Amino acid sequence: MQHNNPWRAYLRAPEGPARPIDRRLLRRVGGWVRPYAGRIAAMVALLLVVSLIELAPPLLYGQLVDRLTKKSLTPGDLNLIALGLLGVPILASLLSLAGRYFSAGIGEGLIYELRAAMYAHMERMGLRYFTQTKTGDILSRFTNDVVGAQNAVTGTIPNLLTSVLTLVTTLGIMLRLEWRLTVVALVALPFFILPTRHVGKRLRGLRREAAGHDARMASQVQETLGVSGALLVRSFGGGARELGRFTEAAGAVRDIGVKRAVVGRWFFFAMGLAGAVGTALMYWVGGSLVLEDKMEVGLIVTFAAYVGRLYGPVSSLSNLQVEFLTSLVSFERVFEILDLPVELAESPQAVDPPHLAGRVAFEDVHFSYGVLPPSLQGHPDYPAIAEPAWALDGVSFTAEPGQLVALVGPSGAGKTTTGYLMARLYDPTEGRITLDGVDLRDYRLDSLARFIGVVTQETFLFHDSIRANLRFARPEATEEELLAACRAARLGDLLAALPEGLDTMVGERGYRLSGGEKQRLALARVILKAPPVLILDEATSHLDSQSEALIQEALDDIRQGRTSLVIAHRLSTILAADQILVLDGGRIAERGRHAELLAQGGLYAELFATQFRDAEMGAPVSG
Fold first, then answer.
1. 291-343 pLDDT, tens per residue?
2. What is the three-class DSSP state of 205?
3. Coil, strand or helix: which one is 541?
4. Strands 438-439 and 404-408, bridge-based pairing
5. 3-class state of residue 462 by DSSP
6. 67 shares its domain with 117
7. Contact 448, 426 (CB under 8 A)
């Protein structure tokens, strides 16, 4: 039985304070973007061409107004100006489309790489991590945060480049045409910059808070709308309570969204006001110069268009700082996943033998769920505790190849923990576990997965066909091998009764099958894997007699010639065990064969007498 862990969860609280933005974070983001440097260069070139082309329409507007005013415009010139005003937007749009192709490729590629890296890292995490982290929190990193990080690249960077190029080219041609109006237009620029720092910091904090609310809402949806959660809620009449919890979480998402929208709108209001002030000043000064015959009307028309092109990029650049600060929150949360310390590290010298005999030895093994693994010791986010409670306290035993070793004892004695350690879902706090004389920590992880088969009490099946669930053990298995494994697991009659046979869908977590059928399918899966070492957490105590008998027959068959570590719930299933270990309080209180332990009159004899009292009186055995 796993105990509550007193030390802090792996992930920082989503609504907690954000880490400061420093050069290290920016360099790290740059490292993910660097492989796309070629595509970014092509995108920049296209954006530069678009910026230069889009300078033409304002010049054409000015020419049109001046020549119309002077009545010097010929029909041919009018046609050319009209064609120019039509052709420039079309050409600019086509080039922008090509630029969008490059930016989309960069963004989608970044999403793919971030998700693949996070998934690969998650695959290396120990069971401890998954018992302490809500699935919804993980899903939030894979969906919302990865997309937010992508937006920094596909949105912020292209917008930054577009704005800079547009600003530089527009300012250049404005200065060339009329420096006085250009100076007037630049007077408003400080008003674009002043609110940016404050608003950026505020929106960054709101973005992180919003991510926390999103994760909590996703966690509740994942927990209560799955099959198991839905059954629990319905059977306990908890629908109203869960609806209340969900509406509270969804309300928090709504409220933070409103805050972000209002703060953002005030920011854009300030930007718009600054632009309006600059435009009004430009028209006022320009109009005065026209009245004094110091400027043509067409130049004011041209400048009116250029001022829009000038203030647009300035406003965008001010907003981009805000967007960049908020998008960095997404990168931070993605990097939190990638920076998680891996508890079960694989040694660079890890071995991968072609086969094993299957000799298992526990050598003075101590284990506590509250003691930090080596990868977390000394980490500031994971403080150690002074007096940990031991789930296993000095456990030593040996299982020779082909032997059946049974673990029995009261609830919480350490039986399941022993199985976890044998499968290397955790590492011992002290002592070591060997397989054929080699420490488990010196094997490659995929080797251990190949050599050790595990059947747990809670059978997990994918929402897929029987065939797909079986082939999870051996993807290359042939049809005959699949059928043979099913027959060995006593599933032959079930398959014959199913119209679709191996292609029958089992439903989410296998809920279309009975408990006994799911357990036999799990046995068929481990039979197909054919490992030399088996860890069997018998799940027969809650099954009907017929299902239990079928599963017991299958277990007896698949244990032949394999080292088996059996966590026994019904003592009748392990009477012929080569060695019975009686665990109590994390220690081996007794060990021996069935008859020896009965003769000792200790804990095993007490457990046996309690379980078989009714049977000795002629009644059916109670579980």
1. 887 788 888 888 888 887 887 777 677 666 667 776 777 888 888 888 888 87
2. helix
3. coil
4. unpaired
5. coil
6. yes
7. no
- Asked whether residue 289 falls in the same domain as residue 424, the answer is no
Q: What radius of gyration, in Å, describes the C-alpha atoms of the chain?
A: 35
Instruction: Round to whole Å and give the CA distance between 254 and 300.
Output: 46
- Sequence length of the chain is 623
403 within domain boundaries: yes
Looking at the 3D structure of the chain, how many domains does it have? 2
Residues 372, 329 share a domain: no
Tens of pLDDT, residues 71-101:
777 888 888 888 988 888 899 889 988 888 8
- Give the model's pLDDT for residue 401: 92
Q: Which of 338, 369, 404 is the last residue before a domain boundary?
A: 338
pLDDT < 50 regions, the chain: 1-9, 11-18, 542, 614-623
- 518: its two tokens: 């799911």
Residues 291 and 373 in one domain: no
CATH of the domain at 610: 3.40.50.300
CA distances from 47 to 44, 88, 100, 429 (A): 5, 14, 10, 59
416 shares a domain with 281: no
Q: Tokens in use for 351?
A: 């071995």
DSSP symbols for 468-490: HHHHTT-TT--HHHHHHHHHHTT
Range of the domain at 231: 25-338
What does the buried/exposed string (b/e) look like for 169-193 if buried means 16 or more CB atoms within 10 Å of the residue's CB? bbbebbeebbeebbebbbebeebbe
Q: Looking at residue 295, which CATH number applies to its domain? A: 1.20.1560.10
